[in-house]
Amino acid sequence: xxxxxxxxxxxxxxxxxxxxxxxxxxxxxxxxxxxxxxxxxxxxxxxxxxxxxxxxxxxxxxxxxxxxxxxxxxxxxxxxxxxxxxxxxxxxxxxxxxxxxxxxxxxxxxxxxxxxxxxxxxxxxxxxxxxxxxxxxxxxx
Length: 141
Known about the structure:
mainly alpha; two-stranded antiparallel sheet; rod-shaped; Multidrug-efflux Transporter Regulator, Chain: A, Domain 2
């Protein structure tokens, strides 16, 4: 019968979420042994290898054959690498957009700050002019 793995161990070996593994098991019509509880699903190494062969994730190790899926599917790492590169380019694009937005916000903030500084200087000048006018008025009367 071979080695058996619970759902958590199996999903870890396949490098996928347990929910994904459950869906794959269902899609492949792999039924639990008679009397087994579906919630505590046990897979044999043969069933695990069948799932891996169909969906091509990288197994950390194939427990029975002591090889990796990379040996069986040599293009998988290249496809995965290309997928990561695409995700990195997308993330970099998002970072660039956020940098542009931040730059625009900084310019708007600087413009507001300059406007307030100008208004404050104008108010100080008005206060100074009023004080001068008041002093002239007080000392001349």
